[in-house]
Structure formats: structure tokens, C-alpha cells
Amino acid sequence: MIVILEPDLGGQEATVAQVRAVAARYPGVTVRPYEFKGTTHRFAEVHLLGPTAGVPAEAFAQLPGVRQVVRVSAKYRLIGRHGRSAETVGFEHNGVRIDDTAVHVFAGLCAVDTPAHVDAMMAALAREGVVTTRMGAYKPRSSPYDFQGLGKGCLPWVFEAAGRHGIKLIAMEATDAAHLDEIWDALERAGHPTGVMVQIGTRNAQNYELLKQVGRQQEFPVLFKRGMGITLEESLNACEYVASEGNARIVFCLRGVKSHLGEPHRNLVDFAHVPVVRRQTRLPVCIDPSHSVGTGLRAPDGLPDVFHATAQGVVAGASAVLVDFHPHPECALCDGGQALTLDMLGPLLDHVRRVRAAYEGSAAAFGRTPVRAASP
Ligand code: PEP
Ligand code: MN
């Protein structure tokens, strides 16, 4: 059972205390208060755990400051979109606000390789006014003989370049809890020239120990990538693991699912699930067209398949796009075939703006105008 308090409630502590007092009448029921910061409002919830089946909702609903009481299954207790709490719970990290009111494009290298390539990528982003990127330092690969990423050794110069080019947020995969410390140490040493959002890759979507570790830390928000061969429900439960350990600053990323039916694409594009994730959870939704499509091929209209898949996700309401670029895809050490070249950055951003405008037009027709102006 969740007791939802009025948004921006003054005297919130008093209401929480009253909820506690009422809950104390029911043996075995424990109380856990949570606070969320949405785009326009701060709101608090008190979660009642344990044998709540016989607890009457009215006992809480009548308390001053209580907006609504909802009964929830144990599922998605924290990330779920309950009752009238219609707002997506975004977050701000290092000055970048991620929610559902604008689209952020995390364009960058699948795998960091050389300082020159990192520099060229970030310079291109800076020219376009983009402050978000992706930079893989730890690469989970299918073959042990493939390039595994440069690891912590590249972090000092990646972060230095990010600071020089005004990059504020880097999506970077961690495949082991030790990587969190390595990333934090490197940021500390560099004087925090940028921010990092830790990516949990599809292969670790059910690595519960890693999920708990990223959930226990507060330094980094989390970009969780859907498991490639598990149900959407299982992936959302994995996010609930992260949130239940204390870190609810999560972006849910769709990246295609493994099925031969997706061929000749690398995965079967699953961006029709954007509205499903938005309905079932309060998480901002990201799409990764690069790992979904897995090819640089173009359609007869001249647009790369990656552009088309991007449009599918953005028009469905995604508010972040994770996309592979490389200054010289032919010499990329990982996933060069799907990387866009730097001359495609401007066209991709224009494409995203146009598609987002179409989405906003349709949302407005249903009376759901996004709160803030959209800009990738
Ligand atoms: C990646 O984004 O670099 C990556 C490995 O993606 P995924 O985990 O979705 O395969
Ligand atoms: Mn990749």
C-alpha cells in the first residue's frame, strides 16, 4: 500500500508521523517514506510493507496532507507509476536534467580507443551545442579475444577532454562494481570536469549483485539497458532492484531484443514498448537505435536505418537517444559497422528535433503538452 502525499507539501514530516502512528495499529506493517523530485514538483510517498491486505485505505486517506492511497502489488513499488502520480520522475545530474520534457542525444563512441578520436567526437558535439555523450571504457564482448575496452587507463584523458569541450554527462558502462570506484577516483583526480551516468549493459540486466551495488551508491545515476532475452517485466524488476537499494535515478533504455526475426538487423527493434514503459513506470525512457539495428546501411530514401529506428523511438515519446558515432568507423575497435560518421551528427539532431516536434504535436492534440520546451 502506498500513501501518496500532496505535492510540495509543507509540514510533510508531520503527515509522515501521522501515517506512522496509524500504521502502528496494524501488527507487522512497516513504514518506509520516500521523496521524489519531479520536473515541476517534489512529492513524497509513504510505503506500507507487510500484511496490508486488511488495512483500510480510509484510515490514511482522511489524514490532512494525504492525496491518495493506492494498493500496489509488490511489483514496481518504487519505479511504478501509481495512482494519480502522473509525472515522470526525472533527475538532474551535473546540470543536465533528464525527464520526459526534452530529448537528450548521447552520441559518442561505443568504445574509447584513441585520444584523437575522443577529441574529434567531443569537438563535433561542442560545435552542435550537445553536452551529453557516450564513451565505453569497459566493454563486455562475446569473444574473450575481442577488444575489451581500455578500462580505467583511459578515464583521465576522456574526462579531461570532456571538461575541455563542455561535456556535462557521459553514459559509460560498468561491468563490475569495482568500475564504479575507478570512475569515481578518476573524476576526483580530474576535479570533476564532467558527470557520468553509469550504464548497465544488456548482458548484466540480471546481474543482481551489480544491480544492488549501483543501487547502493548515490554518486551516479543509472542507464539501465533492457535485457536482450528476457521479458520486459523481468527488466523492469531489475530496475526495481536498483531503486530498492536507494538509487531511483534510473533511465530505462530499450535496445532491441535478440530474435532471428529481427534479421537482417542485429536485434528486433522494440521501440513500440516506449509507451508501455512510460505507462508502467515513472522512469524516463531512452532508446538505443545503434545496438538495435546494428548496421550503417541506408534505406532508399537516403536515411540510415539508425535514423529510422531513432524516429520510431522519439515519436513514441522517448526522451533520450544513445547512439554510436565514430570519426572513422572503419578503424573502430568495437561496433564500427553501426557507427555514424561525424558529418551525420547535425542531420541526426535535426531529424530528432523534427520527430520530437511531431510527437509533441500529437501529444498536445490529446491535451498533454510537455512542460518544458524540447531541444535535443
Ligand atoms: C553498449 O551500449 O555499448 C552496449 C554494449 O550495449 P548493450 O548492452 O545494449 O549491448
Ligand atoms: Mn557496442
List descriptors.
binds phosphoenolpyruvate, 11 helices, 2 domains, globular, TIM Barrel, 376 residues, binds manganese (II) ion, alpha/beta, 8-stranded parallel sheet, Alpha-Beta Plaits
What is the level 1 CATH name of the largest domain?
Alpha Beta
- Strands of the biggest beta sheet: in what spatial order? 7-14-13-12-11-10-9-8
Quote the beta fraction.
Answer: 15-25%
Low-confidence stretches: 372-376
CATH superfamily of the largest domain: Aldolase class I
CATH architecture assignment of the largest domain: Alpha-Beta Barrel
Amount of helix: 25-40%
Q: Tell me about the biggest sheet?
A: 8 strands, parallel
Shape: globular
Instruction: Return the average pLDDT rounded to an integer.
Output: 94
The H/E string reads: EHEEHEEEEHEHEHEHEHEHEHHEH
Cα-to-Cα separation, first versus last residue: 38 Å
- Nearest-angstrom radius of gyration? 21 Å
Describe the model.
The protein is α/β, with parallel strands linked by helices. The protein folds into 2 domains: 69 residues, Alpha-Beta Plaits; 263 residues, Aldolase class I (TIM Barrel, Alpha-Beta Barrel). The protein is 32% helix and 18% strand. The protein is built from 11 helices and 14 strands. The strands form 3 sheets. Strands 7-14-13-12-11-10-9-8 form an 8-stranded parallel β-sheet. A 4-stranded antiparallel β-sheet has the order 2-3-1-4. It starts with a strand and ends in an 11-residue tail after the last helix. Manganese (II) ion binds next to loops.
